[in-house]
Amino acid sequence: MRCPLSSSASARETRRTGTPSSIGESGSIRGLDVDRYYAQLTPNGVDDADGPQIWIAPPTYVIGSVTDLVRTIAAALDLPPGVVDQAMAHGLAMSRGEPIV
User: What is the tally of structural domains in the chain?
Assistant: First the structure.
């Protein structure tokens, strides 16, 4: 069973300054399927009419922790892992209706 970590918000991320608000357009998802994490990402500014542009999932990627997922997403998007980690935390908080600090 797939369990989304969060759906990213429509807010943009500024790659150069590292200001996180999302790590992909609204069609991007990250989650847990049984015991493996996955991500389907559409980078900001890219039309996702054809679906996600970046697929991080088995068998190509076998990711067993959120830390490894953060690192893999960061590498795929050419971002620092800290930016991805913070963006994922913001996305999760927003999906729960929590305030973003």
Answer: 1
